[in-house]
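A.,

Following up on our hallway conversation. Structure tokens first:
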């Protein structure tokens, strides 16, 4: 339970989404002059607003452009555990979850989170020991999606996939070396899409927990030796396939 835990969030979209989230309480907002308008819109929700000139801001937060001149110190809100999510889910609802096996790059996870928000994916499931917590860079990459997409950090990914199957979920492992294409599949109403890290792919114990192993169909091009998509692109395509099914 992360309720009350302090988080640092930076970047325009990520901060505005956090400020718009009524479940949060905000401590401090550091902004440059050109972002004053944003502060005015949300000033009743923030305990302290500090306006800095660009030089002061750079001294405090570095010259990294990714902050976009806006940094928020905020308290996290109560997020459901996987068990709580399953307890409250309606049996007949269409639902998709993504499981990420040993994917550690916050940029990739954040991008996948954005796609989840766009295609009504209920959440991302990762193993605590092999994936980041919600960090400032993950919030920035998610561009506001971390406010609405569940991020389940579980103790054992294989066991959690097995648990989901008891609730009627069907697990699809995505593997570019497999021969069966996703376009020939009628996805189950409740689906889990499992992706492994680039290079290594899914671990065998996780792959064995999948009901089907499939790959996304791609154009073969003799001019380019590209045999797989970036994991966030692959997840986006898979979610779109499910969304339109």
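Then the amino acids I'd put at each of the 245 positions:
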């Amino acid at each position: 339970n992360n309720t009350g835990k302090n988080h640092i969030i930076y970047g325009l979209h990520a901060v505005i989404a956090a400020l718009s989230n009524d479940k949060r309480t905000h401590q401090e907002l550091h902004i440059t002059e050109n972002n004053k308008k944003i502060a005015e819109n949300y000033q009743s929700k923030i305990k302290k607003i500090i306006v800095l000139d660009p030089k002061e801001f750079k001294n405090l937060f570095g010259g990294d452009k990714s902050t976009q001149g806006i940094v928020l110190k905020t308290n996290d809100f109560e997020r459901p555990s996987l068990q709580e999510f399953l307890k409250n889910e309606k049996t007949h609802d269409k639902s998709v979850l993504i499981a990420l096996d040993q994917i550690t790059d916050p940029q990739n996870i954040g991008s996948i989170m954005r796609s989840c928000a766009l295609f009504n994916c209920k959440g991302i499931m990762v193993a605590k020991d092999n994936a980041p917590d919600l960090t400032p860079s993950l919030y920035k990459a998610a561009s506001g999606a971390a406010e609405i997409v569940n991020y389940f950090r579980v103790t054992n990914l294989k066991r959690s996939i097995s648990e989901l199957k008891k609730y009627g979920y069907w697990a699809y492992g995505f593997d570019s070396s497999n021969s069966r294409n996703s376009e020939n599949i009628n996805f189950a109403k409740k689906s889990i899409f499992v992706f492994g890290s680039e290079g290594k792919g899914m671990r065998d114990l996780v792959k064995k927990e999948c009901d089907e192993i499939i790959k996304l169909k791609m154009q073969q091009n003799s001019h380019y030796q590209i045999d797989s998509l970036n994991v966030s692109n692959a997840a986006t395509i898979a979610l779109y396939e499910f969304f339109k099914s």
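The two ends are 35 Å apart (CA to CA). Curious whether your intuition agrees with the design.

B.
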